[in-house]
Design brief:
With 410 residues, the chain is α+β, with helices and mostly antiparallel strands. The chain folds into 2 domains: 171 residues, no CATH class; 165 residues, no CATH class. 38% of the residues lie in helices and 24% in strands. The chain has 10 helices and 16 strands. A 7-stranded mixed beta sheet has the order 10-11-12-13-16-15-14, sandwiched between helices. Strands 2, 3, 4, 6 and 7 form a 5-stranded antiparallel beta sheet that branches. The chain has a two-stranded parallel sheet with strand order 1-5. The N and C termini lie far apart (88 Å).
């Protein structure tokens, strides 16, 4: 009786393979150097582990298929159409083995995985050097029969490959979030172990009487990845602006800018510095600093800052739109101001007498082309964009940039 050693899509269950892959990723993350984990860019770490543990889907290169034949000895003892007196032992005759060679891309181990939808009669074959071998043995020269058998086997392979890839796609798509959750859980534990969690968030206090009604009251082939570089120095906690507070600041800026848009005559002759000053009062009405009454201060010509220990953890830059080159230079300027690891920033762009749609189309590609841009993030504001930038001196120091575009005609 024929054994099962050459059965494809049979040996392992794909769901268990995917589950074990996540467990392996979790084990590596949990054993990762503490200082490296805390010092390395989270986005780079997530990207590394996602690439390392994702499973490349199969792609059959049908245009490169070919066949070959060789003479072999064939056991016909089980062929009931032949007159054989003793079927208890092999009876060999000369025959021919026809092999269909199918080059492919992807993880060859998938040929040994059973998808969620499978056949009780899987195809047979074996894999070597990224080529799938599908063979049949014949004792006659009936080409139609050979074609039929090869077609049946190959079509069965194609069907299973499609089923494998259908199972794999949503799992691969979810791996990024799985890596993120495991990394964040480990980071949280490490920070709690070091009793630092309470010291990491910059303790801005929201004033009890603040609200958002101060304006207009009624009206985002597999190559083995290398781990991201990280410092082996002990992790040093740094002040950081809580993401919830950052979103609130951006909302205040948005509402203030909408007020400017609705009163174009009032602001039509203002330059960047004067426009910048329109944001300071509403921002300071919402926040109070640790040691001074003025949390938001202007610095240089167009900056809006939150500072702690003489370093900025929030920076906003106000710019009138002057084209792609000016946008890239504004990003450089923002980066030159950032010092803390976790700086959050905003670029407030005023559009004067330009086609707003055309301006909006340029923000994302120009920013993504910047040498320090690492990733664009989903952002649900119609005239807003969000990116992750790496600091020029240390790629592990990540800066969140929210670009906001507003119409302020002259």
């Amino acid at each position: 009786m024929r054994n099962n050693s050459d059965l494809l899509f049979y040996k392992n269950e794909l769901r268990k393979v995917m589950k074990n892959q996540v467990l392996s990723m979790k084990k590596e993350i949990n054993n990762y150097s503490q200082n490296k984990l805390l010092n390395t860019s989270e986005i780079d770490l997530i990207d590394y582990f996602t690439k390392k543990y994702s499973i490349s889907p199969l792609k059959l290169l049908e245009d490169n298929m070919y066949v070959d034949q060789e003479e072999v000895e064939i056991d016909v003892s089980h062929d009931r159409s032949r007159l054989i007196l003793d079927r208890s032992k092999p009876v060999h005759i000369k025959g021919t083995k026809i092999t269909l060679f199918v080059p492919f891309e992807g993880d060859q181990n998938l040929f040994h995985c059973k998808p969620s939808t499978f056949s009780l009669s899987p195809p047979r074959g074996y894999v070597q050097n990224n080529i799938l071998h599908i063979s049949i043995a014949i004792t006659d020269h009936d080409s139609d029969n050979v074609q039929k058998q090869l077609n049946n086997q190959f079509n069965s392979v194609k069907k299973n490959v499609n089923n494998i890839n259908s199972d794999l796609k949503p799992w691969n798509n979810s791996l990024n979030n799985k890596a993120k959750n495991i990394i964040n859980k480990r980071k949280e534990k490490l920070l709690k172990d070091r009793e630092l969690i309470d010291n990491l968030d910059f303790p801005i206090k929201r004033r009890k009487d603040n609200n958002l009604t101060y304006v207009a009251p009624k009206v985002k082939r597999k190559v083995n990845p290398k781990p991201p570089e990280a410092s082996n120095k002990p992790y040093k906690p740094e002040p950081t602006l809580d993401m919830k507070e950052y979103e609130h600041i951006i909302e205040v800026i948005n509402k203030t800018a909408k007020m400017l848009e609705r009163s174009p005559k009032t602001f039509k002759d203002m330059g960047e510095e004067q426009l910048r000053d329109q944001f300071l009062v509403p921002l300071n009405s919402h926040y109070e600093g640790q040691t001074t009454g003025e949390t938001f201060n202007s610095s240089g010509k167009t900056d809006i800052l939150i500072r702690v220990k003489d370093k900025s953890i929030f920076i906003a830059e106000c710019k009138i739109w002057r084209g792609k080159k000016a946008l890239s230079e504004a990003i450089d300027q923002l980066l030159s101001y950032t010092t803390w690891r976790d700086t959050k920033t905003s670029l407030i762009i005023f559009n004067r007498n330009k086609n707003l749609t055309n301006v909006l189309k340029q923000i994302e590609p120009v920013t993504m082309e910047h040498s320090n841009c690492k990733k664009n993030l989903e952002y649900d504001k119609e005239t807003g964009f969000r990116f992750i930038l790496g600091h020029p001196d240390d790629v592990n120091r990540e800066i969140i940039l929210t670009a906001l575009v507003f119409d302020v005609p002259s």
